[in-house]
Amino acid sequence: MYRLYDFLPSGNGYKVRLLLTQLGIPFELILLDILKGETRTPEFLAKNPNGRIPVLEITPGEFLSESNAILIYLSQGTDFLPLAPLEHARVMQWLFFEQYSHEPFIATSRFWLQHNLADEKRQALVEKQAPGYAALGVMEQRLKDHPFLVNDRYTIADIALFAYTHVAPEGNFDLSGFPGILGWIDRVKSQPNYVAITDEAIGQRA
Amino acid sequence: MYRLYDFLPSGNGYKVRLLLTQLGIPFELILLDILKGETRTPEFLAKNPNGRIPVLEITPGEFLSESNAILIYLSQGTDFLPLAPLEHARVMQWLFFEQYSHEPFIATSRFWLQHNLADEKRQALVEKQAPGYAALGVMEQRLKDHPFLVNDRYTIADIALFAYTHVAPEGNFDLSGFPGILGWIDRVKSQPNYVAITDEAIGQRA
Predict the structure, then answer these.
(1) CB contact under 8 A, A89 and B96
(2) B112 near B121, Cβ under 8 Å?
(3) What is the pLDDT along chain A (206 residues), one digit of tens a residue?
(4) A97 to chain B: nearest residue by CA?
(5) How many A-B residue pairs are in contact by the CB < 8 A criterion?
(6) Rounded to whole angstroms, how far apart are CA atoms A101 and A136?
(7) What pTM was estimated for this model as a whole?
(8) Domains contained in chain A, number
(9) How many other C-beta atoms can be found within 10 angstroms of the C-beta atom of residue A64?
(10) Do A181 and A89 lie in a common domain?
(11) Which of B76, B95, B166, B169 is 20 to 30 Å from the Cα of A168, by its Cα?
(12) What is the per-residue DSSP string for A96-162?
């Protein structure tokens, strides 16, 4: 059985939990507290030298890191990842967009606010607003007249972007000006076997 | 023929130029000056709403952005991208590592120093040092006893990481403490049809 090393509030971890659940793949959940340095121990760094969750233990001792790489690995040969070259490439385009132009602004703001760092990070939070809203604008451009990010079908591109977009208000991003995104969030939530980011019952707790 | 919208000093653009050249695929090079706002015009934003190069025009009017998504698209079915699921996943892992944990620190520092922003960005440059060196440490961990990043063979993972690592000293990162990386840089440079980041002759200039 797969083992997922994770931290429940993490959207990056949630991506993998959501896909595994929607694929009906059972997994064992190993929870680490990143706030207590549990991903910086020698034991964990042997699993991922970059010291980040999520990490998927594919077989005993075989570890895969980077949430979007795990999504690609798990979705190969399923409806969540189109085979046609151009559609496949568009999924990849959104996955890299998410990690470079979206997550560092929208997810990081949420993390700081969730962990009471608003005062310490006051200036940094201000600086994250413009690039965060720019990323939401790029998504809106697509979603204002398409049901999903790629090919009018739910794929891992939607899972990857949904993870932090639907909780963007927790990072002080107001989604009310993005009707395309709001409609898409509802469509993602209505997918079969959808589970919420806060659902602690996902996976079999170790 | 492919058209590549690019900016010559860009490592992200260089990744695509290098792979196209090593695959022997001719392409037309359209140069834009990101410093003059040429990637923020309505005309360019219609090609990539995220306003960044490189953009590959696959067929007239069909545009693909995100350098690493372009690498994946072009390398499908070639020796540059392993087919075996775990090896394929490891390539993806390095590509996302590059965009999240490496490029924002190492490439950004180089960009500021190249464009005489050292004074304006003095504090930001200091803050990029620790995460940049951490990324180099993760690479060294692998390269100290392996010839390449994945599977002991040259892949797009090497191309993606090489682009900004080999010019890291231009961003004030000292590579002398990373013998594994230095040996790997030499191995990449000795690959067939290698071209340098500064080689303006790559591609057919429009």
Answers:
(1) no
(2) yes
(3) 999 999 999 999 999 999 999 999 999 999 999 999 999 999 999 999 999 999 999 999 999 999 999 999 999 999 999 999 999 999 999 999 999 999 999 999 999 999 889 899 999 999 999 999 999 999 999 999 999 999 999 999 999 999 999 999 999 999 999 999 999 999 999 999 999 998 866 666 55
(4) B66
(5) 94
(6) 10
(7) 0.96
(8) 2
(9) 23
(10) yes
(11) B95
(12) HHIIIIIHHHHHHHHHHHHTT-TTTTHHHHHHHHHHHHHHHHHHHHHHTS-SSSBTTB--HHHHHHH
Q: Are B202 and B19 within 8 A, CB to CB? A: no
- Under an 8 A CB cutoff, do B138 and A65 touch? no
Closest residue in A to B140 (Cα–Cα)? A49
- Do A101 and A14 lie in one domain? The reply is no
**Would you call B98 an interface residue with chain A, using a CB distance cutoff of 8 Å?**
no
Based on the fold, state whether residues A30 and A90 are members of the same structural domain.
no
Kindly report the backbone phi and psi dihedral angles of residue B5, in degrees, each rounded to the nearest multiple of 5, phi listed first: -90, 125
Parent domain of A57: 2-78
Q: Amino acid letter at A202? A: I
Task: Answer with the one of A78, A105, A129 that is the final residue of a domain.
Answer: A78
